[in-house]
Design a protein that fits this description.
six-stranded mixed β-sheet; disordered C terminus; alpha/beta; nine-stranded mixed β-sheet; about 25% strand; globular
Length: about 400
């Protein structure tokens, strides 16, 4: 096959690796509009289950990613000025640039051609002529998808809270949170390491808090200094870092949740953020994009001979079904943070416990203190655990059915 992959993010690069490894006769070109190393963001997170899937897909790139990652097991939260710790499963962080470089090196070694600083602006671009398969891996603002938005049934929902993606020289050895109350409301930070030198810090607050603190009007340098002051105990004297380029400062955004009713049109198929997004607070975006690549490669495998339309249809159906759980978790996680003041009456350890339960469809409908007690009781009584598992999805369907 002749394949054109538009977008050199993790999903597009990993798909090229999988397909070229399975069939070296494929002619694969990846088109990336940015220069090498100019990617946005700092670090990405994933969990051990992803590594198992990557090892099955391509052991060599999986080993390179694992070797370049850092790990943690504890979660730490600073609430006002009190610190609490939660012991959990191992998580991993890797620099986004590092991951892209590793995947690009592996793709090139297999014979994939990568065209950097090469924008493909639409489905009629000459680069795509003659391709048997065109993969739209060009992100949430995909030009290829937008050309046929009605066909794909694209739907975008904007979140309420503004957030900004930053870096720091403080190297965190746990996944850390800080919740700070100001005269204008709550502001909080998620922080995690991704190398031996840097960590990611995502700062979020309500629109009213951002305006009240003046963060909507301050320039980048003044904003960073104010945030460093607010989160001084989390950062231990380390500074915050915006973007690498002075002409492209760190920007406050609101998260855009994207869904699509179908994922392909003729020989054009969606992949990664071009197909779906899930709120960053569940830390699953890169994992889900790489799982898309694995599923699409499976659908196109020589061992599963079928015509292209059938293969792409099965891929879309499979991934939309597999994403339901993550999309639900992301929706409730985003809502938990949007309703944060509801939970701040709890003592820090209990608030942190409910932070871990934020994916529950029951939580928004039960008083926080009562939910905490019920959750602790459910840990001890199997009958309550079964009731919780039974009731949660029914509440979710009833609530969303009225919307």
């Amino acid at each position: 096959m002749k394949l054109a992959i538009v977008g050199g993010g993790p999903a597009g690069l990993y798909l090229s690796v999988l397909l070229k490894r399975r069939d070296p006769s494929h002619e694969i070109v990846v088109y990336e509009r940015n220069a090498e190393g100019s990617t946005y963001g700092w670090g990405v997170t994933y969990w051990a289950g992803l590594l198992d899937k990557l090892r099955a897909g391509d052991p060599e790139s999986a080993r390179a990613v694992a070797d370049a990652s850092v790990t943690w097991t504890d979660g730490v939260a600073i609430v006002r000025d009190e610190r609490t710790v939660h012991h959990g499963d191992a998580g991993f962080g890797i620099g986004r640039r590092r991951m892209l470089a590793l995947l690009a090196d592996r793709a090139r070694a297999l014979g994939v051609r990568i065209e950097l600083e090469h924008a493909v602006t639409g489905p009629d671009a000459p680069e795509l002529a003659g391709a048997d398969l065109v993969v739209a891996a060009d992100g949430v603002n995909s030009a290829l998808r937008e050309a046929y938005a009605d066909h794909f049934g694209s739907r975008v929902t904007n979140g309420r809270n503004p957030y900004v993606w930053l870096g720091t020289t403080k190297v965190f050895d746990s996944f850390s949170f800080a919740f700070k109350e100001t005269a204008h409301g709550w502001i909080w930070c998620y922080a995690y390491g991704f190398s031996g030198e840097r960590s990611t810090c995502v700062v979020e607050c309500s629109p009213e808090t951002r305006t009240g603190l003046g963060l909507d009007a301050l320039g980048e340098a003044d904003s960073l200094r104010l945030l460093e002051k607010i989160f001084h105990d989390l950062l231990d004297g380390h500074g915050l870092i915006g973007r690498d380029r002075a002409d492209d400062p760190a920007r406050w955004l609101t998260f855009r949740t994207l869904t699509n009713r179908v994922w392909h049109r003729d020989n054009l198929v969606l992949l990664g953020d071009a197909a779906h997004t899930t709120h960053y607070s569940i830390g699953a975006g890169t994992t889900l994009a790489l799982e898309d690549a694995l599923a699409l490669a499976d659908a196109l495998a020589p061992s599963a001979p079928r015509d292209l339309d059938t293969a792409l249809t099965l891929y879309g159906k499979r991934r939309r079904a597999e994403l339901l759980s993550a999309q639900s978790a992301a929706r409730y996680s985003a809502r938990w943070y949007e309703d944060l003041p509801r939970y701040m009456c709890l003592e820090p350890a209990r608030m942190f416990a409910l932070l871990g339960q934020r994916h529950s469809p029951l939580l928004p409908h039960v008083p926080p203190q009562l939910y905490y007690r019920l959750d602790r009781a459910a840990d001890r009584l199997e009958s309550l655990r079964r009731l919780k598992r039974w009731l949660g999805p029914r509440v979710a369907r009833a609530v969303h059915g009225r919307r």
